Amino acid sequence: MQDKQCLLKIRSLYSSFSKIEKKIADYIFLHEIEIIYMSITEFSENCEVSETSIVRFCRKINLKGYQEFKLVLARECVNPQENLHEKIHGDDNIEEIINKITVANIEAIKNTSKILSTAAMEKAINAILAADRIDIYGVGASAFTAGDAKYKFMRIGIKCESFSDPHLQNMSAVNLDSKSVAIGISFSGSTKDTVDSLALAKKAGAFTIAITNYEKSPITKYANAILLTSAEETPLRSGALTSKIAQLQVLDIFYTAVAIKRGDLAFDMLNKTAEAVLPKLY
């Protein structure tokens, strides 16, 4: 861990803070570790201040915003090994590392299955089945999940596209309508490009689905259906396999349920797509 320069800076500026800024600072002093795992929406609700006030506070201490603030806190307040993996310690041997990571990944799958809303999943499935067009948005590590979603749905004959470029995401979103579905994938629920694209899709009339780890996060404000994952990740460990496994768990359930609903059509397309790529294998 580094010296807690960020917290020291907050203390040094405390007397110059406004009433709201002091409220934010007081909350940080009491919950410095918990904040690392909070979305800005959760922090806002727990601290009883607006998200805008939090962003302004971060800028007042010379940070770009809330995500950078969490990154700095993670550097200063969490052991370096925990930023590689929350369960790992510096003196762990290979066998312990194997066991701890395996247990953490299994926990992510189990906890995701527990938190996943069947009602939200049903809404999402019905929307997919009724849609003429499906566009999927994800950037960074979530772009790979978006690409996997496209691959899976194409295998069962559903026309869809995935976008990781923010400009293409926005252009896609404004071209959607009431017969379209937009899926935004963001572990934090605060990825600006994905949130903005889903907001545009909703404004255009599309049915919107968010796959995220945080029910109270910016992306869920624009989602007709929220499919939650449950994995723990520090900002320095962004894109970790544990969060990816949780996303893929949701996606696999989603895809399988849609395939079963499509019945023979899905099974016929599985055979056709399998035959189509067969010549590509030795």
From TrEMBL:
Superkingdom of origin organism: Bacteria
Domain SIS: 124-264
Domain HTH rpiR-type: 4-80
Protein keywords: DNA-binding, Transcription, Transcription regulation
Gene3D superfamilies tied to this protein: Glucose-6-phosphate isomerase like protein, domain 1, Winged helix-like DNA-binding domain superfamily/Winged helix DNA-binding domain
A biological-process GO annotation: carbohydrate derivative metabolic process
Pfam families: HTH_6 (PF01418), SIS (PF01380)
Molecular function via GO: carbohydrate derivative binding; DNA binding; DNA-binding transcription factor activity
InterPro entries listed in its UniProt record: Homeodomain-like_sf (IPR009057), HTH_RpiR (IPR000281), RpiR-like (IPR047640), RpiR-like_SIS (IPR035472), SIS_dom (IPR001347), SIS_dom_sf (IPR046348), WH-like_DNA-bd_sf (IPR036388)
PANTHER family to which the protein is assigned, alphabetical: GLUCOKINASE, HTH-TYPE TRANSCRIPTIONAL REGULATOR HEXR-RELATED
Protein name in UniProt: Transcriptional regulator
Organism: Ruminiclostridium cellobioparum subsp. termitidis CT1112
